[in-house]
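Regression check, adenosine-5'-triphosphate case 390:
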Amino acid sequence: MNIENIKKSLENVKYPGFSKSIIDFGFVKDIKVEDKNCTIYLDITSTSKEVEDELRREIPKVLPNLNLILFFNKPKEEVQKSNSVSGQNIAPQIKKIVMVSSGKGGVGKSTTTVNLAIATAMQGKKVGILDADIYGPNIPRMMGVNGKEVEVVGNKAKPLNAYGVDIMSMGVLMKEGEAVIWRGAMIMKAIQQLLRDILWEELDILFIDMPPGTGDAQLTLAQSVPVSAGINVTTPQHVALDDSRRSLDMFQKLHIPTAGIIENMSGFICPNCNTESDIFDKGTCEELAKEYKTQVLGSLPIEPAIRRGGDSGKPIVYFEPESITAKRYMMAAEKLIAMLDSQESNDISNEAIQPIMPAGVSACSPEGQKIKAEHQAKKSGGCGTGCGCK
Ligand SMILES: Nc1ncnc2c1ncn2[C@@H]1O[C@H](COP(=O)(O)OP(=O)(O)OP(=O)(O)O)[C@@H](O)[C@H]1O
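Current build output:
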């Protein structure tokens, strides 16, 4: 069969979902024939696997007597992004923002943030922690910087630093024990100030320790900061997993790529014999991870040394690096770094997912929606007035 005959046969293959053929669309870029061997190069416009699969089924039907090799050139699949829209870049020096979240309080979210951030810094990354848990900002205590004076340069504050990690928290800026009863918009404003008015250096990763839950404040906050990855912290009991689902659903709704789940308090390591016993049904997070097409970043046992490390400001990952627990945090950090690095090859930088909302404006509010629409119009070359010129 010569190339012309092959092309004629391919005219009978419709591009999936259309009435025109792959030849009419100009998707067949090259054909090479040698005896019964034929290689066809196709450039298609869809990233969908189903489209490629259907063409792989249909093309051999019209060329039954040839040994076919099909090469598909497809556009890169679009990677999920936080639904913050590109625009005003309030913290361009921060490459990746990682949100640490939990469905409910007390599951070890702050403990995880601290140890994971230090583990990431120990693997050579420039790391910061922003303590956005306005209701219980305990990162300063856990990092051993409680009560330390913040240095102010001009009208901006310098982050504190401990164990190779930059730290800023409402806990540092508020008086100790000051109760905060804030609503979403105020939290959002505070977060934006903590990003804008703090002299963050160039960071590879900024971990944000979120308030627990998925209430209004949580959603507003999640929509207002650019997020490259979300980590869900949970304990393995089924009751806790129900809350966890809400948190993972929130990531999905907001198009935050889920880096994985940390199963905290998953078993008990006996300080005397070093054996691990199951208390809260450890391992249930694997099922949850499968359900949400993500991974378990690590399973951390209940260990007195973890709590002591938190209370004394001497995190276990730094002070007992040879312990089983420290090694699990290091492994979790490795998995997170690998996930973030894989995004790099897809060109998803913080710059591409910066928020555009001015402080105090919710991305979901009518005003927020208007700002988003204008911004998108400007990006695509329109005048931004909504007149429909683009
Ligand atoms: N794996 C663990 N083993 C032992 N104690 C732990 C472990 N994880 C956390 N803790 C302890 O449990 C308590 C609650 O942890 P943490 O403050 O990290 O939880 P949280 O989810 O951030 O809570 P909040 O909702 O108040 O912000 C702390 O005293 C901490 O030291």
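Comparison notes: The pocket of adenosine-5'-triphosphate is lined by residues 102, 105-111, 133, 136, 138, 212, 264-265, 300, 302-303, 306-307, 310 (CB under 6 Å). The chain has two domains: 3-73, 94-353. No diff flagged against the previous build.
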